[in-house]
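Need residues for this backbone.
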């Protein structure tokens, strides 16, 4: 009977298997290392791109912030200008109002029988102080006022003596009329009446 010694074949086969496993293991380690290196490089590129984007965004934000600051400065200057314009308009309106008031009072005054000593304007209210020769002159003046002003009231009247002449000092309050009819028609100027004194 023939005997074959298979021991060297098995040993060589076992060595071949070990060699193959080592190659597979080393190949797997190398492949895993390559994958890790690639993934690390990819992550680094993404991080670099993100950092570049952040820097670019910061620069844009700084530019926009400068523009926002400039816009805020312009807004503040516009607010100051609008306030100045409002003050100028108010002054112009009050100037025209004073001129109109003096003009209307000049047309209502009863010539050579009365004169004004003081005007006070408080919003829509008007306080008129003056001196007249008699009560009828004051009544006629109040009638003229009622044509253009509302709530005409005689708040004070007293007799005073000037250069041996007795005169009437008076104070009248009234309110500016807001009706369109009174504004259009203007103050009424009836003919002066002469009183028998």
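Answer:
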């Amino acid at each position: 009977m023939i005997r074959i010694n298979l021991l060297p074949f098995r040993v060589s086969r076992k060595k071949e298997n070990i060699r193959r496993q080592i190659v597979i293991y080393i190949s797997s380690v190398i492949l895993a290392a390559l994958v890790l290196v690639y993934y690390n490089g990819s992550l680094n590129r993404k991080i670099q791109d993100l950092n570049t984007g952040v820097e670019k965004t910061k620069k844009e934000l700084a530019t926009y912030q400068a523009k926002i600051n400039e816009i805020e400065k312009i807004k503040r200057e516009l607010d100051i200008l609008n306030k100045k314009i409002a003050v100028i308009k108010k002054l112009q309106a009050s100037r025209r109002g004073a001129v109109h008031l003096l003009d209307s009072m000049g047309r209502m005054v009863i010539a050579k029988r009365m004169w004004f000593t003081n005007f006070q304007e408080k919003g829509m209210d008007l306080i008129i102080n003056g001196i007249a020769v008699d009560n009828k002159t004051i009544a006629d003046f109040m009638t003229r006022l009622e044509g253009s002003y509302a709530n005409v009231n005689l708040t004070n009247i007293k007799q005073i003596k000037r250069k041996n002449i007795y005169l009437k000092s008076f104070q009248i309050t009234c309110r500016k009329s807001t009706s369109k009819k009174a504004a259009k028609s203007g103050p009424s100027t009836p003919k002066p009446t002469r009183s028998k004194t």
